Prior knowledge:
single chain, 200 residues, mainly alpha, Arc Repressor Mutant, subunit A, Tetracycline Repressor, domain 2, 2 domains, 0% strand
Amino acid sequence: MPRKPKRNTKGKIISAAWRLFYEQGYEDTTLEDILEASETSRGTFYHYFEGKDALLGTLSDLFDEKYRQLMPQLREEDDAVTVLAFLNRELFAMIDSSVSVELLARLLSTQLITRGEKHLLDRNRLYFRLLRTVIARGQSRGELRADRSVNEIVKAYALMERGLMYDWCLCSGEYSLSRYSADMMEMFLKIYAAAPGQDS
């Protein structure tokens, strides 16, 4: 129980900050704006973050919060390919509507040059835990190829998503990320779907 308020406070700060970044732009969003929108004190903010720039590394937290919201919608009877396509579609729709191209590009660039923690690759993230669960279940039910390990498929899926995000940034968001990725992910997931009659 004691951990829940901490997680909620940090989450409130992150959610408020990214909403403001999207609405006002990163440069035009002040620390005071974030404190007001998240209803937190300066001291509380600095307990979690060194400053506004540190929030750039929290986009993965925002993504994981989206997955947390989606989990109750996952149905046991849905096959793994359907679930993976759903997760991608919902996340990328969120990016389309609430994460600017400039901010996503900034995050991806910081992950390339950092010598510290690469948040997007943190295997303890909810994102990776959820993918491993969905893919392992899909293999056990014969829905996904068994000649590739769970970790290999997880890595390929994450790589595909990062590639789609990178290309969207490279093209300055000139197309809908969610619509384009729906077509690309459908083709990609066919590679890992078990062939009819294939042994699991």
